[in-house]
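Researcher: Go.
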Amino acid sequence: MNPVIEAAVPSRFNAIVVGSFSAIGIGLFGFLLLHYHLAVYGLVVFLAVPFVAGFVAKRLAGAGSNAFIAVMISIVIGLGVLVATGAEGWVCVLMAFPLLFLGIISGMALASWSSRRNYTSSNNAGLMVAIPLLIIGSGWLEKSVAPQYRLEVISTSIVLPETPEKLFDMLKGVDVVNAPRPFLMRIGLPVPTSCRLERGSVGAGRTCYFDHGYIKEEVVEWTPPTLMKMRVVENHVPGRHWLGFKDAIYTFTPNPDGTTTVIRTTSITTALYPAIYWRPLERMGVETEHRYIFDDLSRRLQRKQP
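Model: Structure:
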C-alpha cells in the first residue's frame, strides 16, 4: 500500500473516533445535568447541548465525510445508551430527535464557517474547557427562569350506540383491555391492560395497570351515569420522569338519537420545553391512550350485540 495512504487511514480513523466520542461525552454530560437537577428539559438540553456536540464533532473530526460519520456514530451510541439503560424510551427519543438533529446540524454549520475564518486547532483545548462551563451556566440560567411544570388538559370523545348507564358500568372497571396497538404503543408507549375499582363511591381507590407499572387513583366525583372523576395519587409507570398525571375524568352525555357521547379528559403535568414544540406531541401520546381505551370499549360493545 502507498505509504501516504497508510498514514492517512489511521489519521482519519483517529479523527472520527475523537470527534464522535467527544460529541457523545458532551451529550451525556447534558443528560447528567438533568439527572442531578442542574438543568430542565428545555432549550439548553434539546438544542444547545446537541449544537455544541455538532460543533465539536466537526472541529475535531475535520473536513469531508469525517464529521458526518462522527456525528452518526455519536447519535447511535449516545441515544442507544439512554434507551439501553432505561433512562429514556424509544418514544421519547423519536419525539426529541428533530430538535436534537437541528441543534447538531446548526453546530456543524457554525464549525464549518469558523474554519473558513481561520479558527485554528490550537483553540480546541480552550474550547473543551469552556464548553462544560458554558453548558452548566446556561442550564442554571434556564432553570432559574423556566416554570417547573406546565399543566395540559387533553380531551378525546367518541359517540357510541349505547346508553350512558351501560357505558358508565363498562368503564368504571375493566378486567382486560384489548385492542389493536397503535404505532406509539408498539415502540414503547405504556399499554393499558386493566382497571380495578374498589367500590362505586367518592373516596374509593381505582388502580389502572399497564404492561409496565400501574397508576393509583382516588374517586373524587361519582355521579352515575354522567360523571366519574379520579385524582391520581400514585404513578408507578417507569420512565418519563418529566411527566406527571393529575386527574382522569369520564363524562357521559345522552344524544337524541339514542347514542351517547363519552369524553375522556386527562390532566398532565409536564416539564418539557419549549411548549410550542412539545404540546402537540404530548397531546398525540395522551390521545393515543384514550383511543386505545375507546377502541377496546367499542370492541366489547360489538361482542355484546346479537
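Model: The helical segments are 3-35, 43-61, 66-84, 90-116, 124-145, 164-172, 183-186, 275-304.
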